[in-house]
Specification:
transmembrane; six-stranded antiparallel β-barrel; DUF748 domain-containing protein; transmembrane helix; membrane; about 525 residues; alpha+beta
Length: about 525
């Protein structure tokens, strides 16, 4: 037998052996895989599929029409808790043959999940009860079946549903996710985020989230990576009408309706360090924000102390650092009414632009730069308003300085807000209004000045605030000149804070005190 013939026979035998081995391993894998997925599946879930194809040549597994249900639900159809899923296709790439044969679970480079419809039924109203529930309810059960480095999810729909009322707490439509460099260990499973990763991308067409019993959040397009987040058409919407909301609260509380055409976060970095959350960003932009704050005076006063912004930021229990917070091309409205019959008084700020720098929490900080806020807008749709506001988060006296200017303002437009503080109303044009107040948690003092034309004052009775005191009105108009003849009239203001009221109440009372000193 020639040498060439021997070589050909050996090569042919090796090829035949490889084919037989591949056939045998394919047969064995096909036999073993259902055991890994079901019989030796130590998770709380049953997994079934229509077809499965295994290729040893490229170390891949393809499964069609995969269905996942809790094992308890198969025994008792009344049980409705856990994850239910239907998946069009699952592809596992570069899997380890030996892991299937000898470790009873699949180890692979990546898994691609195509068009999953996932529903997580929960017994509570919270989407996530606590940080460890992600690990215990989602990651840990499937870590017993498959371990991969990369996860790709294509065109999925995900819902978290409250078992009690069968209503969605969270719903995400047409979601696409890619997680690269995943690492899971027993120690990592116990952490706040129960897996580590190198990179992630997520995008979806819409999100619905029931934030609490009073509000839900809706968005359209959302896209995020390790370093950025973009949200289109954000909406924070009350669950109830104003009348229903007021009936459901025991004490006065603001009702918020917030819309934003765009929210964009640049150079974002977030996570947990030693179990403590942190969030850093170079810039957060809220573009074309529409914010309506409504308060009804029917419920009892909330007499708890209202913390100033220094205090609120200082006592956050995590590390927050935002270099720049920007609000652009926006509208802010505040409405207040005593009863539903008379209608609400409204303050409107249009063309609202805000820039806040050095927005930080005080968590584990010993020194911080001042937070500086600049606001430019149109007040009541006609008067330019400019404000500069500064504070330091670490200042335990909650000190602040705020100064501003309003031009060409019709005094009659804020009668619903001036009358409660001054027991008086004014008519006329305030050509210029200036204020500069320095304060803290206890009091504020500073300068107030106005220049006005054709101003009239109307003073009301003390014992009947709806009726005009004709004598004091006549006397007041006698002493108040109709105009300041082009000169500023100024007054020094000093005022104690009402601890049960907000910072904005404190600012407004300081302005009203200045008006009272000059006009009355």
């Amino acid at each position: 037998m020639s040498g060439l013939k021997k070589i050909l026979i050996i090569l042919g035998s090796l090829i035949l052996l490889a084919i037989l081995l591949n056939f045998g391993l394919n047969f064995w894998i096909r036999y073993q895989l259902p055991k890994v997925i079901n019989q030796k599946n130590n998770s709380a879930y049953d997994i079934s599929y229509k077809t499965v194809d295994v290729s040893l040549w490229n170390s891949s597994i393809h499964a069609d029409e995969v269905v996942l249900v809790p094992k308890k639900a198969l025994k008792d159809d009344k049980v409705k808790a856990g994850i239910y899923a239907k998946v069009k296709a699952i592809d596992v790439a570069h899997f380890s043959i030996w892991s299937v044969l000898f470790s009873d679970r699949i180890k692979a480079k990546s898994i691609t999940i195509t068009q999953p419809e996932v529903a997580l039924y929960k017994k509570s109203e919270k989407a996530i009860d606590h940080s460890k529930s992600i690990g215990s309810e989602v990651v840990k059960p499937f870590e017993k079946i498959i371990i991969v480095s990369d996860i790709i999810l294509k065109d999925g729909d995900v819902k978290i549903i409250n078992v009690a009322n069968d209503k969605a707490i969270l719903s995400i439509s047409h979601v696409n996710v890619q997680l690269d460099g995943i690492v899971i260990t027993d120690d990592i499973l116990a952490e706040k985020i129960p897996f580590q990763y190198k990179n992630y991308t997520l995008s979806c067409d819409s999100i619905y989230y029931r934030a609490n019993p009073f509000y839900h959040i809706m968005t359209r397009k959302v896209a995020t990576t390790n370093h950025g987040l973009s949200i289109k058409d954000f909406h924070l919407i009350p669950e109830y009408s104003r009348r229903e909301f007021v009936r459901k609260i025991e004490k006065e509380k603001d009702i918020y309706t917030i819309n934003a055409n765009e929210i964009d976060i640049k150079n974002m970095d977030w996570g947990f360090k030693d179990t403590i959350f942190y969030f850093n960003a170079d810039k957060i932009l809220l573009n074309q924000l529409g914010a309506n704050i409504y308060r009804n005076k029917i419920p009892a006063d909330d007499l708890s102390k209202k913390k100033l912004y220094n205090n609120l930021l200082r006592n956050l229990k995590f590390n927050l650092k935002i270099d720049t917070l920007a609000v652009r091309n926006s509208i802010v409205e505040y409405e207040e009414e005593k009863t539903f019959d008379k209608g609400a008084g409204k303050l409107t700020f249009t063309k609202f632009n805000l820039t806040a720098r050095n927005v930080c929490s005080g968590f584990q900080q010993k020194k911080l730069a001042d937070m500086k806020i600049k606001i430019d807008c149109i007040f009541m749709k006609e008067s330019p308003l400019n404000v500069d506001w500064s504070l330091n988060v670490l200042d335990k006296t909650d000190g602040f300085n705020i100064k501003g200017r309003i031009l060409n303002f019709d005094a009659q437009k804020i009668v619903p807000f001036t009358k409660p503080y001054m027991n008086a109303t004014t008519k006329g044009i305030l050509n210029e209004v200036y204020f500069n107040f320095t304060g803290n948690d206890v009091n504020a003092k500073g300068d107030f000045a106005i220049k006005y034309d054709d101003l009239k004052v109307q003073i009301y009775r003390k014992n009947d605030r709806e009726k005009v005191n004709k004598f004091l009105t006549a006397l007041g108009n006698l002493f108040v000149k109709n105009d300041t003849k082009g000169e500023l009239k100024s007054a020094e203001v000093e005022l104690d804070r009402i601890p049960e009221k907000s910072f904005y109440n404190f600012l407004w009372r300081s302005i009203a005190e200045g008006l009272k000193k000059i006009l009355l």
